[in-house]
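TL;DR need structure tokens for one chain.
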Amino acid sequence: MLAQLFSSTSRLVADLPDAVRLISGLRWLMLAAGCLLLLLCRLAGLALPWPLLLQALATLALCNGYLRHALHRGDAALPLLRLGLLADVLALTECLAFSGGAANPLASLYLPPVLFAALLSPGLFAWGLSLLSMLAYAGLFGWHLPWPLQGSDAAYAFSLHLLGMWLTFALSAVLITSFVSWLARQLAAREAALAAARETQLRDEQLLAVGMQAAGAAHSLSTPINTLTLLVEDMLLQHPADAALQEDLQLMQAQLGSCAQALTRLKQGIQQSSSAAPLFATLAQQLSGWRSLRPEIQLEWQAPAGIDPPVRLDAAFWPAFFNLINNAAEAGGGALTVCASLQRDGLQLDIINRQGCLSAQQLQRAGLAPLVSDKPAGMGLGMMLSHATLARLGGTLTLDNRPEGGVHACVRLPLPPEKQ
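>> reply
TL;DR here they are.
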């Protein structure tokens, strides 16, 4: 417990530079209020040690200017924060010593620096600054210059003290409200970030479970697929004269070959390409291979004319891309369009099918959780897998219904320039 109490590593906010800037701004506000207060005292005819008071305020102003400059220069924020709070306590002590000591109602301004230290630098420094403030306040009882009054009017002295108490309350309220409001916004932003991180972790756990099940399915399916492939080959040799059966068997052989290739890729895992390749030519080649597996689908491919930049695409992109292509093909009535273009932030792929639409709930939750699939035996996992993969690659996936019918899926993927 004592170790946690005196530890200086745990604090409520992580963005200390912003906290130092805020406190520096509040310090300028307090200096302006102090100068205004001295001007009012001067107009009231009070005989105060003006050079000593102005020297204290000027020293604090120079210290605050140095802190802003050092922070802008890139110095560590925590030492600057501690130096500024220590300067606040010393400057306040000097001003109080020259203007009535402990009887001055502005002595309550010791509390804001102690509060800031407790929130931003808990531990030994906060306790030390608190002890220093208490000792300084106690010392003002014995050593101070008297507060000058015009005559010996007790009512005037009491009213002046009440005015000082109100001023102290107002300044403390401004300081604490400004800082605590900023702190509440910081904590709300941190809570939102934690909530997003928890949602991402939950989605990653779901994907990990799906990946483990896929690996087990790949291991279990390899033997039946190999057996069926051998049976189809034997039947092709046993019935060479039956043309219709030969055609069906060849189609079965091609489909079994595609399944075997998919399982092989799944077993081998994701392997990065060793060299860059022309972007649009690679996309066209991959889509051409997909056409051979889905000849019943009418696929329109549109790529921009001009230079085809060499790009090294992550191998994880292709399963996510073809998940979207398959979904669009099965929902679009056998026709879809794929358009590619280069934007300032990378590659943009527009996948458009001209039939069907998504509900408001599907548009809101697409990619964040498994959706109810309209396809026979569909599990609704494809969209979530594609969304998660693109997010891991730094890309985005957005879905919207087209006014003329159909669904538009927009994929944006950052493409760093290839280093030659």
